[in-house]
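> call design_seq(struct)
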């Protein structure tokens, strides 16, 4: 018998109006009316094995589709289990709405099961965190949540509902979704940036995740190509200039940042990943001037004073900046020798790496894995990184050929994102390869959600770099103290057997020659499949920052 209409229906109907197609959740009685509403409204329900995976899946959905993601969590521990996912969405600027259950209003204060006032806990890591005011207004409250999440600068919103309010009748709430009006940049700021470019000899462009999230990838590519500017991508800025593009100088990053006299950072914070905004200053040269461009003024750096800054819709900013560069008399040939120097350095770095990408060393060097992976990746493959040293190699050697096909945890650095991200990627890109790169440490956070992949028939290829240690901790502790503690894992632990036990496929690889055939079997399998590769624990990724 079909249930009567209730507030859960109103909440789901508004969510659908904002483009939500899937509700990610883990079953809980406090939110049954939201499930019933999904059934009434024809929304997919995808249930996982840990609430963090539900929020990570919603966040990845937002980042891949550029539409808001939805996670539904039951009261108390359901919500606290999802907090790392909400924090990750906060640092990534991902438009996610997290709906939570709440003990009944009629029992509030008397010690009901999982009674907890959630919004104060979520407030510091959301744009808005509140409790719906009543059954009659739930449609309006849900609309406010989505409207806030998608407005620049995007981010997560938390909304919980008293259980008895959700079960109560509620009027339908008509929604007329409107895209936020583009924020126009200040023309004088753009003129200043154009002047700095005209004066520069060695500029570098950095494109970050918000360029993709703001749908500005076309404007960004055109700006770089029109003015012949070398580009280093960051986060989901990867792929805006495809692998092999003559202006893409990721492999000459060290040289570019050391010798630049002007660095223009677009759509990403001046955080630890970018030296906190300090560039140049090598071998007696003055520090580089820095320009920071963001989608809203709230995202502009405050810990340092850039030479110039601008905020606004990033497509508008970049198109308008191109016009300002023409007005400033900038010539596309002005940086030819600088671009050639960086291109040559990038080519030399690629050539130097060839030996390790094909190395037959035993134990396996992690770079050999990326040498083999590059041979089987399609142009539209979605590559997901969840780990430390092993995934750092991916950031260096996996260069997307299209924008929007790279996912990593972002600046919050939360391990355990991978399975939730994989679930979302398979739904968002049903015809593409989906590859999850897991460190063996990261695998321990969420591997039970392979069961979710299996139950929902979501094939994903998982590659586990298994060195049997917490590499990011073991090597630095050895350097600092001459010993290490709490840094050991099981050597050659059979994570692949966990996957097969949960209904997928997998195998352990211990020799370099086995990697390529195992990857091909994984892609051909049509099931969630892990290639568990034993790598050399003595190899540490040669990083230049610890994030401190």
């Amino acid at each position: 018998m079909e249930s009567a209409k209730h507030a859960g229906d109103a909440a789901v109907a508004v969510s659908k109006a904002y483009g939500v197609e899937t509700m990610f959740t883990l079953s809980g009685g406090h939110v049954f009316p939201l499930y019933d509403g999904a059934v009434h409204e024809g929304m997919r329900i995808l249930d996982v094995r840990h609430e963090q995976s539900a929020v990570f899946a919603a966040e990845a959905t937002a980042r891949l589709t550029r539409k808001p993601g939805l996670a539904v969590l039951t009261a108390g521990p359901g919500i606290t289990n999802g907090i790392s996912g909400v924090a990750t969405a906060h640092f990534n600027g991902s438009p996610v709405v997290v709906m939570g259950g709440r003990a009944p209003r009629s029992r509030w204060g008397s010690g009901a099961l999982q009674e907890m006032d959630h919004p104060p806990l979520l407030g510091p890591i959301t744009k808005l965190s509140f409790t719906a005011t009543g059954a009659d207004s739930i449609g309006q409250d849900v609309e406010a949540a989505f409207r806030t999440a998608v407005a620049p600068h995007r981010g997560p919103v938390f909304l919980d509902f008293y259980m008895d309010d959700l079960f109560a009748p509620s009027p339908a709430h008509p929604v007329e979704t409107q895209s936020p009006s583009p924020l126009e940049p200040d023309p004088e700021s753009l003129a200043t940036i154009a002047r700095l470019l005209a004066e520069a000899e060695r500029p570098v462009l950095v494109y970050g995740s918000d360029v993709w999230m703001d749908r500005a990838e076309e404007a960004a590519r055109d700006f770089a190509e029109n003015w012949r500017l070398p580009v280093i991508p960051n986060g989901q800025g990867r792929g805006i200039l495809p692998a092999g593009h003559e202006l893409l100088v990721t492999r000459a990053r060290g040289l570019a940042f050391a010798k630049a006299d002007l660095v223009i950072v677009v759509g990403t914070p001046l955080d630890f990943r970018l030296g906190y905004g300090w560039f140049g200053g090598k071998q007696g040269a003055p520090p580089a001037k820095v320009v920071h461009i963001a989608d809203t003024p709230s995202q502009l750096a405050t810990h340092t004073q850039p030479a110039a800054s601008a905020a606004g819709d990033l497509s508008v900013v970049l198109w308008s900046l191109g016009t300002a560069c023409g007005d400033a008399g900038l010539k596309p040939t002005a940086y030819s020798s600088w671009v050639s120097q960086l291109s040559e350095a990038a080519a030399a770095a690629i050539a130097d790496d060839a030996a390790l990408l094909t190395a037959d060393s035993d134990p396996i060097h992690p770079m050999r894995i990326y040498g083999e992976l590059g041979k089987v990746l399609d142009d539209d493959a979605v590559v997901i990184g969840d780990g430390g040293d092993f995934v750092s190699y991916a950031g260096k050697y996996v260069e997307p050929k299209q924008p929007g096909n790279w996912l990593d945890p972002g600046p919050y650095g939360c391990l355990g994102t991978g399975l939730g991200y994989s679930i979302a990627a398979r739904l968002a890109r049903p015809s593409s390869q989906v590859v999850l790169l897991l460190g063996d440490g990261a695998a321990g956070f969420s591997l039970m959600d392979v069961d979710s992949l299996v139950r929902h028939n979501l094939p994903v290829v998982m590659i586990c770099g298994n060195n049997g240690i917490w590499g990011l901790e073991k090597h630095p502790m050895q350097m600092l103290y001459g010993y290490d503690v709490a840094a050991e894992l099981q050597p050659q632990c059979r994570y692949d057997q966990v996957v097969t036990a949960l209904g997928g496929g997998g195998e352990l690889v211990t020799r370099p020659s086995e990697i390529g055939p195992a990857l091909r079997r994984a892609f051909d399998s049509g099931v969630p499949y892990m290639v568990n590769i034993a790598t050399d624990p003595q190899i540490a990724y040669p990083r230049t920052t610890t994030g401190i």
